[in-house]
Amino acid sequence: MKLSKTVIFLVGLFLVVAVLWWVQRPSEAPLPLQEIVKKEKTRPVDTKKAAPLKEQEPSLQEKSLAIAREEMVDIVFYGKVVDENENAVAGAEIKFAVHDLSKSARTEYQTVSDANGLFSLTGIQGRWMGINLSKDGYYTPVKENRSYEYYNRFAKIAEPDLDNPVVFHLRKKGDAEAMIHLEKQVPIQLNTPVTVDLKIGKIGSADGQLQVTLLENQGKLKQWSMVLTMNQGGIIPAMEEFPTIAPEDGYSSAVTLDIDSQLPPSWIGVYKGGRFYVRLQEGYGLIEVKMVPGGEYFRLTTYFNPSGSSNLAYDPVKQIKPERIAAVGLERAIEEVRQRRPKTPEEEAEEIRRWEGKPMDNAPE
Q: What are the residue boundaries of the structural domains of the chain, listed by start?
């Protein structure tokens, strides 16, 4: 019992001494705020434990531009222009459209063929290139306007060859004759024939040689058909790309068109119809009938050579206007056209300036 009291006494004495020491110990002054911040700033960083910064992901635009830069390669092209008889065509105008990194993503270049029909394009970069050719007095077939790939993972790349240039064909136009030309937008209804006088270009004429009858016109149901009937002469499809000479035979009195009828090679878009040679007692002609199934009118284009010739090469300078025929008669209108000469470049420039309302270069101030 005496031992327990002694232990309790010693423990209590120890606790009292410990409390007195804690209370009377010297206190450390708190650090100023500036010192705390300074210590935080100068605290060493363990580089072994520090996480690296995440690399910023490129934007979609930056990715697209990087890909486009990779696809820009040197473009080298050698070509030659010839006519339908393989003769070199000098002075043909060649226009290039190159897909590149310009703001519009396309840059155009232009050159002309030399005395041997040769031309080239070098010293530029791009991905692909389109080429268009033209020359006054020549037709350009649709297939001669081409495009070439220079960077494509899945297609054959154009390979230039100076000794074996790419050949382009133009077709020389024949000598044009005086022609009656008509372009009209003609209203039409089901089973209501519309007549056209091809000699004077009059719609609804009782003496019209051509009669157009609409049989079906349900565009959404793809049900459309039309009959072209020649009250005089005959009609035959003209499927050539450049129908400039009418055939002498093979004509019939009528043709029927429907939604699946074959179209001329150069036609594009939603139009149905066709292009046809026509033969009258007075001569030959060419007509085009175009209609959008479900519409209320068709587009009619006609050319008629009143001289009796099968030559249908057309030149706007030699156009016989229907209103002139009505004023002076057909023979006089034809003679006026034959005496007409093409305008000089100076006359054409003057006409353009007058049309634009601008003064002549040498006009007095």
A: 60-172, 179-339
What is the third-level CATH fold of 60-172?
A: Immunoglobulin-like (2.60.40)
Comparing CA positions, the residue from 165, 161, 142, 148 lying closest to residue 88 is 165
The per-residue pLDDT string of the chain (365 residues; one tens digit each, 9 = 90 and over) reads 555 666 666 666 667 666 666 656 655 555 554 554 455 555 555 555 555 556 667 666 655 666 567 778 888 999 999 999 999 999 999 999 998 888 888 899 999 999 999 999 999 888 889 999 999 889 999 889 888 888 775 665 667 888 999 999 999 988 888 899 989 899 999 999 999 888 877 888 888 999 999 999 998 888 999 999 999 899 999 999 999 999 999 999 999 999 999 998 878 888 999 999 999 988 999 999 999 999 999 999 999 998 889 999 988 888 888 888 888 887 888 888 877 766 666 766 665 566 554 444 444 33
Longest CA pairwise span in the chain (Å): 158
What tokens does 252 get? 């019939």
For residue 78, the cross-strand partners are: 120
The residue among 125, 169, 176 whose CA lies nearest residue 151 is 125
